[in-house]
Amino acid sequence: MQRQDFTIEKKRYRRALVMGLTIALAFILVYKLYDMQVLKGAQYGSQSQRNAIRRVAKDPARGLIFDKDSSIIVNNDISYTLTITPFEFDYQTFGELVRRFNLDSTLVTVRLRHGSRVAEFEPVKVKRDLSYSDIVFLEENKHRFPGVNYMADIKRSYHMKPHMAHLIGYVREISARKLRNDSSGYYRPGDLIGYGGIEGFYEKILRGAKGYSFFTVDARGKVIENFDHGQEDIPSVEGSDLVLTIDLKLQSFVERMLRHHRAAMVAIDPRNGEILCFASSPDFDLKYFTGQTPLRVWKNLIENKDRPFFNRASMAVYPPGSTFKPLIAAAALQEGVITPSTKIYCPGSYTLAGVTFKCHGAHGNITVVRAIEVSCNVFFYKLIFKLGLKEWYRYGSMFHFGRKTGMDISDESPGVLPSHKYYMQRYGKKWNIGYLVNLGIGQGEISVTPLQMAAYTAVIANRGTYYRPHVVRTIIDRNHGGAQPVKIQKERIPIEDDVWDLIHKGMYRAVYSSSGTGGSAALGVVRIAGKTGTAQNVHGRDHAWFIAFAPYKDPQIAVALIVENGGYGGDAAAPLVAAAIRYYLFHDTYTSTHTNAPDSVDAVRDSTQAVTAP
Amino acid sequence: MKSKPASIVGQVDVLILFPALLLLAIGLASIYSATLSIPNQSFFERQVIWALMGIAIALVIILSPPRSIYYSAYIWYWLAIAALLIVLIAGKTVGGNAGWLRIGSFGIQPSEFGKVATVMALARFLSDSNTRLNDLRDIGKALGLLLLPWILIALQPDFGTGLVYLIIFIPVMFWAGAEMFLIIFLLSPVIVGILAVIGLYPFLIAAVLLVVVFYLLHRDLGISLFVLVLNLSVGFGTQYFYNALPEYQRERIAVFLDPTRDPLSAGYNVIQSKVAIGSGGWFGKGFLHGTQTQLRFIPEQWTDFIFCVPAEEFGFIGAVLVIVLFLIIITRGFYLASQCDSPFTSILVIGMVSILLAHVFINIGMTLGLLPVIGIPLPLMSYGGSSLLSTMIILGILLHSNLYKHRSE
Questions:
Q1: Which of A383, A458, B159, B368 is least surrounded by Cβ atoms within 10 Å, i.e. has the fewest?
Q2: 10 Å Cβ neighbour count for A216?
Q3: A16 in B contact zone (CB under 8 Å)
Q4: CA of B170, closest CA in chain A: separation in Å?
Q5: Chain-chain contact of A18 with B346 (C-beta, under 8 angstroms)
């Protein structure tokens, strides 16, 4: 029998419909295949490579740091770091792991999440500096914690007598913020990075470059073999070693000398710009920052009102006070504003628009050399008006005031060297010529770092060559074995020799004449030229400055020292500078009674009493 | 009545036979490749045994007397129901569902055979001269034949196979002559129910649209309103139950709908499968050289994700070849259905082809990330005796029907 709904026509109609539908479905599949395999094939291809091939980073050993006699001062110790590979990790064990290793669970969670997004087969560093018992525990319980392992890593060890904390800087795990800002993509959470000082500045040179090994893995993350027999592996590049210019004995001497002060001293070899000593006090011992910093130490450092972390030598800024007078004098002489015989009258005070500025005595009719010797304020009040702000600024800028010295340290302040533009921006049209008066004696808006002052003193000492201050003398490339000296950069400052003669004379007399302000720095064994300064401090006692170079005829060291709240520079700072200079030039023959730093100014005075002006 | 073997060989439909044998060979090669890196296993050897058994069963079906399927249809149906009941009571759990019977060292899934038996019973019932397809009571009976095994499978639970049961009902009813509006009527609550999980607006829009189409086809306002109310109750009911589910179950359904949500568990398979297929490119990485396959990035790839193997190792060309071979079998089946004089054979063939079409499209669709992963095998290729045997039965029925298409019962 034939049913009504099974006629040939109806069946043909239905067949056309189901066949059309079937072909449409087949077309969907083929189109999707075309899209995936042909159009997006390359993309999926690289994804499949990444899937099956695990990349494991190899950290190179960080470069070492040597002193100038090639004895090691910063070394690497082996340290073990706990790692978790996100792909293999069993999150059920997380709680136990956190308890056993005292982990910061938030931090670890964030790192694992980051790790599983970026490269889930790569071990994520979770905790540094594992103890021996941690390692034993891991070895015994590895099977219970899939994906948990440890790796050999480094931590810094320090082998020098002085602290040098601000100069060296330290090495620790990269912070989340730094990681976010790392555009190179080099760093992973838990990686070490240099912070501050030399470690920060020379980070790329010290760290070298990570190497990578490639392994073929199955879906369980089990390593099957070296990918392409290791041919594709990228070897790590060892970090380079650094040789410093620092005189460790001097550094040690100065650190001990400044121990009870808030102070900073920088000493430079004026012949080449090498930093001989770079001290900021109070400081801290870097050994507390190699692994887990004990909470007590950390708290003490953080809560200390004297701020031991603060690098006063290159970050702190103070008005230079009278130590700036030689610069103004040199500029005025060079520009012909005054001659060596020009005399300016000092009645003991100076009045401008009804305001009286005092001098520390009535110096009478004096020349520029005498003005430096006695540090006459009135002379320089009047001189700054003759010189003008523009020239003052030009010369200050030549000595790198108001800009960074370019020293190879990661933290440096530029300070402030006010210009016409600066005043306009800051005060608008309201500022007037009266603001200049203060600049004449290095007070007011100007601020400088001790490092800048040392570089400036070195220029005075070598008669006009600005050497970029630097603390690294040589970089030793461990991969190629070459020792590459750091190129010395210098700038010539156009001031003539006879001008320098006068400046030197004034600074020599400041130390050795009976009316000089720096008499307490006078040494017998070697001639010193120097200049005192007092940085006005609205918050308390003034800061004491002293800059000096020696030997007078053949300068080998230029020093700048600030003692915070030290008061008058001639009292608080000058003797300490003298002691440092004497120690540097004669430490081999320094008598045993002086191997310890002088605790009081008197100790220095005793050895310098017999000196009179030539 | 001439049914000598010699003449049968001459009349076998080569457009079904040869593509099927080729797919079987590709499937065996793929299983070999996918399991090559697993030590101490015998997936390939076991599948060869299943294939030989399948060929033997297909031969038995082809050589059986002309009307034997018609007469035995209900017997197979009730045998299948019995087997489904037994696994519910004494079944063995494999891969999350309990639908396994153990026979020696081989496991059997009655739900795979149940599909074939259910289609036989439906064809028998729908082709009965007393059955009226515009009579709601008869449609109810047909639905009853479908839902009885479906409930037993849903209880296992095996969502994927259950879904295939529901899907094949549509072409079978359509081919048997049921009106379009009836099919929409039956289909709309399912569509609305699935959309209700996704969100409020998708299901509301679908419910209204379906009712509009229903009204245009049927022109009965009363029934249209009833369908609307039914759809809305299904939709809101689904939403209510979905929201009442524990968080982890809702998450599971969400992953179901969006596999990228949880790349390390459920969705992981799909991502790895897409990477495997995509990285195959135009010509593939070469037999036994698919990195994703050989490194076993896709768990149990030799079962539901077997399509990745030819797609990765033979590329776009290999993948399209597989699809074209299936397409030849399926369109040939539809052609055969239209040639059959007997309504029973015609409906039977449609049902068998629909089973194949549903499996092929859903399986490949899910490996390509087009459809959710519901764990149904690819006919002729996926590892597994039940799937392969039931497919061989289907092919046997198609070839048998082709021999006797011009006889009426």
A1: B159
A2: 17
A3: no
A4: 11
A5: no
Instruction: Report in angstroms the alpha-carbon separations of A217 from A47, A507, B87, B286.
Output: 14, 74, 40, 20
Contact B374, B278 (CB under 8 A): no
* pTM of the full structure: 0.60
Q: How far apart are alpha carbons A548 and B346 in whole angstroms?
A: 112
**Pick from A415, A169, A172: nearest CA to A311:** A169
Q: Which domains does chain A have, with CATH numbers?
A: 55-244 (3.90.1310.10), 249-282+311-608 (3.40.710.10)
Q: What is the pLDDT of residues A37-92, one digit of tens each?
A: 898 888 888 777 766 666 778 888 899 999 988 889 999 988 899 999 887 788 88
Q: B347 — contact with chain A (CB < 8 Å)?
A: no
Q: Does B259 touch chain A (CB under 8 A)?
A: no
DSSP secondary structure code for residue A238 in this structure: P
pLDDT in tens, B191-210: 787 777 767 787 888 888 88
Q: Which segments of A34-104 does DSSP mark as H helices, in order?
A: 41-52, 94-101
Report the gap between the CA of A216 and the closest CA in chain B (Å).
9
Report the gap between the CA of B278 and the closest CA in chain A (Å).
4
Nearest partner of A206 among A78, A81, A77, A76, judged by Cα:
A76
Q: Which amino acid is residue A546, in one-letter code?
A: F
Phi, psi of B388 (to 5 degrees): -65, -45
Strand ranges, E, within A159-295? 170-173, 192-195, 211-217, 223-226, 241-244, 263-269, 274-281
Pairing state between β B97-103 and B106-108 = antiparallel
Q: Is B316 on the interface with A (CB under 8 A)?
A: yes
The radius of gyration of chain B from alpha carbons, rounded to an integer in Å, stands at 22
Interface predicted TM-score of the whole assembly (ipTM), two decimals:
0.87
CB contacts of B171 in chain A (<8 Å) are: 18
Residue A455 Ramachandran class (φ > 0 left, ψ -120 to 50 alpha, else beta): alpha
- Residue in chain A nearest B407 by alpha carbon: A1
